[in-house]
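Changelog-adjacent note: as of this version, every example in the card shows the full chain rather than a window. The one below runs 179 residues end to end.
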Amino acid sequence: MRKSRQNRHWSRRTSSVPKGYLRSWVLEMLNEQPMSGAEIMREIEDKTSRRWKPSPGSVYPLLSWLLDSSYTRELSDSEAGVRRYELTEEGRKFFEEHEQRKSQDRSARFFGSQFDDWEGAMPEEARELVESWHNMRRAGRALRRKLRDDYSDALVTEAKKLVDDFVEKISRLSEAEKV
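Full-length structure tokens:
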């Protein structure tokens, strides 16, 4: 059965993104270099591995607010028809305050765990791992359906042992990388 088109890219909709997430991205990008609204949308789509593409209806009002608040200025040397923005000194201070709040709240996950992997694309060399991770999640959902429809103590015991072993091994790998 084919997935409906309307649900295929549900996570790309701005409504599923927490308040302040777009502002965080835009401030970070403008802190690096001047950009236009279209460049910002394209860059976010690339950096989130096409998981999210903010709409013009979200990006341009935010750019107008940043401009009206004196956090950005429009560059006069932009190409015809392209409005590029850069942070002002006040905008850089606003960005730094924003980053401080994020780092203070880092342990509380500033935007929630579902957005952790939006912070940048996986290296191309890790694509096989990403596919394996997706396969593991599919297998987990299938097991939950099986248990819901045909519960078995033996299956629960075996699955719990497998999951616990997996978590222990992955945790050891993660800790080994920190050293």
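Structural remarks: The CA atoms of residues 29 and 100 lie 16 Å apart.
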